[in-house]
Amino acid sequence: MGMEDASYDVDNTEDVNEILLQVCRVLSFTVIINTLIYKLPQMVVIIRTSSSFGISLRSVIIEWLAYTIMLTYQFAMGFPLETYFESNVTVFQDLILILLILKNRKLIEPSILRYYFVYFVFFISMAMRMYPDAVMYISISATTPMLCWSKLNQLLLILKSGNAGSVSAITWFIAAYNTAVRILTTVVITKDFPMFVNLVSSEVFNVAVFCSVIYYSYINKPPPQRRRYY
Known about the structure:
Elements: H1 2-36, H2 40-49, H3 57-76, H4 85-104, H5 113-127, H6 133-161, H7 169-190, H8 193-219
Helix pairs in contact: 1-4, 1-7, 2-4, 3-4, 3-5, 3-6, 6-8, 7-8
Membrane topology: Multi-pass membrane protein
Organism: Lymnaea stagnalis (Great pond snail)
Pfam families: PQ-loop (PF04193)
């Protein structure tokens, strides 16, 4: 009887694990779909209003670098593409967003090309595992404070100004949702502790920024004009 119970427990555990795996795959697909439009709302706001007020350029640049590290680390470590596909799109969209902000603030200069050159050389080398593993682990560990600082910087900018400005609530909602899903897939599939810490820390600030954007957008919303009747 004891052996039958043990066998039943093992079967149940395997069934639960399989269900969790399938759920993670479905949720990963939704993350991929969301990622395709992740930064688009923010880009649309900048283009439509011709303003990047309230958006921290430093925050976007740090986020771009952090996600690039995450992308190259996961690629180099051979993780399943489904667990980090959105990082590819996020890195590209962050780059476009940075260029939009620079253009809006008239900060584009030929001198910035050298920084992009260093960026591409460093991270392509990292993706090809041309650096010692210690560098890989130090780099991925560094993304936690980088992402936290990036999001904290944006949060403080909103709180200090008391205005969400051109910051897109939709973009930050997508960020919060995607990160929540990635926490689950990390626990179930990759079981990578540095990535787990990274994602949980990031999620706290994603939610905080999203809530602050909603709050300040609401309290700063101009009152509706009363219609006059003659």
